[in-house]
Design goal:
This protein is of the alpha+beta class. The protein has two domains: 1-247, no CATH class; 278-404, Histidine kinase-like ATPase, C-terminal domain (Heat Shock Protein 90, 2-Layer Sandwich), CATH 3.30.565. It has eleven helices and five strands; from the N terminus they run H-H-H-H-H-H-H-H-H-E-H-E-E-H-E-E. It has a five-stranded mixed sheet, covered by helices on one side. The two termini are 36 Å apart. It catalyses: ATP + protein L-histidine = ADP + protein N-phospho-L-histidine.
Length: 409
């Protein structure tokens, strides 16, 4: 989005020239050439000495613009050599270069002071009895050089501002496209997944009340299925709310339609809960036990503060491992071991062989339909951790993760 006014070839030439002039060697060369020209023009009299005082600052005007322009101005106004006539052409060229380069760095007040001195010199010369064409020419040259430096500075500021605006516009467009994609994903997830999860909840509740002679245990299991489906639906809606509106919620007029179930009056949409972590591990384990899976949790080591992203990854690894155990090894016991080290959080989730006949699922617990352990590995890699998993000879399955706690992971 950032377009330069100059053609590409001129733009490249300008960049190369800028880089070259940023080094001291071109300025030393220019100062040497001007000194030779001044010597050839004026010999070694006071005019040459004045030219030397004006031309030498050319060598360091880029590094020290204010001292350079101060020396050149004082010399040009005749304060170093009061009896010398006006500077020769080589000295005037050096004064032009010094004022132009320094004008890029000087403030507006400093430029006005320098211009005022040369204006006074044009009206009542410091080094001559009467004003003349030479003093007015000197004033014109200095004002033109300072103005050129100031215009060059303004042009650079405009180009930098345009480039910044272009970068900001590109970033805004990218964020807008990302938001559009996230909204489309959220819409598809809601239309597809929410539809089927809602059907699961409805069918589970319907089966409880329409199946004659249903055993009490079966009714309890169907109720748990319905509750799990409703919990999954609520959590998915909270996640989709964040995806559709990544910024903080804003106060606004209430939306049309009834409020979400369970939402307090005046609240827009579903309530956003804190993202899960190991602090919710007891609730996760309790829900798994209610589904009929025996879970044992062992915590060792000295508990240390856990970064928020690592805390979330640890929770998701345990959650996915429990889900895989219920799916691929129904009836098997699950052992969860957490070890808090000074630099690592180690997780080990092991389930035994299936205790009852398992449903038809892939023979490998890596979920060959694709995303269970793959998403787990991506989460662990995102925080710089390592993940190992595999089936054991006794038919069980183990997931082991090491998550670094260092800030510089």
């Amino acid at each position: 989005m950032s377009e330069r006014i100059l053609p590409a070839a001129v733009d490249r030439l300008e960049d190369r020239l800028t880089r070259a002039l940023a080094t001291p060697w071109p300025w030393l060369a220019v100062a040497g050439v001007l000194l030779l020209a001044a010597a050839a023009q004026a010999g070694l009299d006071d005019r040459f000495l004045t030219s030397v005082a004006i031309v030498l600052p050319v060598a360091f005007v880029v590094r020290l613009p204010r001292p350079a322009v101060l020396i050149a101005v004082v010399a040009a106004l005749g304060f170093f050599f009061p009896g010398a006539p006006l500077v020769p052409i080589a000295g005037g060229t050096g004064l032009l270069i010094v004022c132009a380069v320094a004008g890029y760095r000087l403030t507006a007040a400093e430029i006005c002071v320098i211009g005022g001195l040369f204006l006074i010199n044009a009206v009542t010369p410091f080094n001559a009895p009467d004003p003349g064409a030479a003093s007015y020419l000197l004033f014109t040259v200095v004002i033109g050089a300072l103005g050129f430096g100031r215009l060059l500075r303004s042009r650079s500021a405009i180009i930098a501002e345009r480039e910044a605006l272009g970068a900001a516009h590109t970033s805004t467009v990218r964020e807008h496209l990302l938001l559009v994609d996230r909204t489309a994903i959220a819409r598809e997830l809601h239309d597809v997944v929410a539809h089927h999860i809602s059907h699961i909840a409805i069918q589970a509740e319907t089966a409880r009340y329409t199946t004659p002679g249903l055993p009490e245990l079966a009714g309890t299991r169907l109720a748990e299925i319905g509750e799990s489906a409703r919990s999954a639906l609520a959590e998915m809606r909270r996640v989709l709310t964040v995806i559709r509106a990544p910024g903080p919620p804003r106060a606004g007029p209430p939306r049309a339609g009834p409020p979400a179930a369970g939402a307090p009056a005046g609240q827009l949409g579903p309530a956003l809960e804190p993202r899960p972590g190991l602090g919710q591990l007891d609730a996760l384990v309790g829900a798994t036990r209610r589904h009929g899976t025996a879970v044992t949790v062992t915590v060792s080591g000295l508990a240390v503060p856990i970064p928020a992203d690592v805390d979330l990854v640890a929770y998701r690894v345990i959650q996915e491992s429990l889900t895989n155990a219920r799916r691929h090894a129904p009836g098997a016991d699950v052992d969860i071991a957490l070890h808090h080290g000074p630099e690592l959080l180690r997780l080990t989730i092991h389930n035994g062989s299936p205790g009852v006949a398992a449903p038809t699922v892939p023979t490998d617990q890596t979920d060959q339909t694709g995303l269970g352990l793959l998403g787990m590995r991506e989460r662990v890699d995102a925080v710089g951790g390592t993940l190992r998993h595999g089936r054991l000879p006794d038919g069980g399955f183990t997931v082991a993760a090491e998550l670094p706690l260092r800030p510089d992971r």
